[in-house]
Amino acid sequence: MFGQVQQSYGIVGVAGATSAVAEQLSDGPVELGVAEGHPIGETGVAMPVSVQVRASASEGSIRVGDREVARAGEGLALAVIAPGGQLVAAAVVDTTRTLRVPFDMQLLPLYRLSSASRCMDIGNLGWINVTEATMATRLVARVDNYRPFDSTLVFYLAADRPTGLVAAAPQGTARRSSIS
């Protein structure tokens, strides 16, 4: 599998199933089908629509009903079917490059990382020099107040010239007593 052994593999599964699904592994071609209304392996779940999985050393395909929804030359053909029988997604994964499923980026847009902050766990250690962690970035402090207690957070800031210091209001149930 995945370019190492020339075997064919087909599977029709059920999300969260703990019992055997319908699957077949072979040195030759695989043809695996589950008819509409029939159980998927030993899961006890009935297939809402007929599914046909074909796999060989050179290609794989998936048919849902009378329509081919995925065909892969080299790699994996995947299809996700809702309990009502609707096709949720179909994808082809090229395993010769990487094993990554192509996501619809309209639903999950990517953003460029412009900076990364350093995190320091300071606890009740008294005086802590956080200069390195705050160089050329903003300072964000989080008081994990999972049990109510009085806490004080004091910052001493110094610069060679005036800065545009901005103190934001606290979030959560904390109350700001003073910022000067």
Describe the structure.
- There is one protein chain.
- This protein is mainly β and 180 residues long.
- The chain has a domain at 8-93.
- 2% of the residues lie in helices and 24% in strands.
- It has one helix spanning 131-134; strands at residues 8-12, 22-26, 30-34, 51-55, 60-64, 67-72, 76-81, 87-93.
- The strands form 3 sheets. Strands 3-4-5-6 form a 4-stranded antiparallel beta sheet, with no helix packed on it. Strands 1-2 form a two-stranded antiparallel sheet.
- The longest helix has 4 residues, at 131-134.
- The protein is elongated.
**Structural classification:** mainly beta
Percent in strands: 15-25%
CA radius of gyration is 28 Å
Helical residues, percent: under 10%
Q: What is the number of beta strands?
A: 8
- The best one-word shape is elongated
The helix count comes to 1
Could you give the topology of this structure?
Layout: E1 8-12, E2 22-26, E3 30-34, E4 51-55, E5 60-64, E6 67-72, E7 76-81, E8 87-93, H1 131-134
Antiparallel strand pairs: 1-2, 3-4, 4-5, 5-6, 7-8
Q: Which descriptors apply to this entry?
A:
180 residues; mainly beta; two-stranded antiparallel sheet; elongated
Quick gist of this model?
The protein is mostly beta strands and 180 residues long. It has one helix at 131-134; strands at 8-12, 22-26, 30-34, 51-55, 60-64, 67-72, 76-81, 87-93.
